[in-house]
Amino acid sequence: MSEHILSSKLYYGIWIALLVLTATTVGVAHIELGPWNVVVALAIASLKAVLVVLFFMHVKYTSEKMTKVIIVSAIFWLLILLALSLSDYATRLWS
Amino acid sequence: MSDSPAAVESRDLALRHHFATQEQQRRAASLGMWLFLSTEIMFFGGMFCAYLIYRRLYYTEFAAGSRSLDVTLGAVNTAVLICSSLTVALGVRAAQMGKRKLLVVLMLLTLVFGVAFLGIKGVEWNSKFKEHHVPGTSFHFEQTALDGKPIDPQHIQLYFSLYFAMTGMHALHMIIGVGMFLYLTYHSWKGRYGPEYFTPVENGGLYWHFVDIVWIYLFPLLYLIDLKK
Fold first, then answer.
1. Can you tell me the ipTM of this complex?
2. Can you give the pLDDT at residue A34?
3. pLDDT at A1 > cutoff 60
4. In chain A, whose CA is at the least distance from the CA of B24?
5. Quick check: is B142 in a domain?
6. Is residue B106 situated within a structural domain?
7. Helical H runs in chain A?
8. Which of A47, A57, A76, A80 to substitute to test the interface with B, most B CBs within 10 Å?
């Protein structure tokens, strides 16, 4: 009847991974990487978000394909917003 | 026993008549929640877009503003929210298994973490008010240069405007979440949720995890812009 129940060990594993990634992002922020600092910070944040979505929010285990369609289109729309706005600001000669 | 509509209904109180099965009803509710969360992504997306544009234009001021925040408190708050997401995920699991007492304990723990987050955020905001870092007529930023580059007080106010708008909208979502979980705790205590009906716990959980994800992005973008040296 209900979706299958995940082991609590899995949840604790994800929890520890998220805490380790938080410590990592703080640590890396103290190292000079030039323009790569922000890339690494966003990559770690995205990895954390993916872990939360897939495991805590059960998206990895859902059989409902429409949920995945909604998530992918939401991210796609967000990227349109960010990419088009930023490319505009990056390529014009704003004084 | 006759199979009159009233008798059918009494068999399964939680099932609305326009759904064929509990499973169909649960999936529809979950899908609706995801649709709502996609509108939330666009809502926060607008602020993230403004942030990225101004960070690109006024990087020196954003770096200086970021350095004036307390990274330790920000990191602790990130950990607090991650812990609350764990208790929410375990809570949904407890509801699925029909463990009422465990569910109530986990809902209460979530509330403790949620209120702790808001408390720490309040401490941070309070010190910003004391330092006159709140945009407006009394705004004052002591530092006039960073790494030899001059700091424009107008531009650094943009950083703090975005800081207060983004953490403020996030805190508002947390307050709504705490209200939601007070409701869920009460009904968990009453024994309303179990293996055949746990939709409110599941959807409240989805909302809570979403708010956690927003913070996962806010933390590095606001606190960790320029910590080198």
1. 0.93
2. 87
3. no
4. A1
5. yes
6. yes
7. 8-29, 36-51, 65-91
8. A57
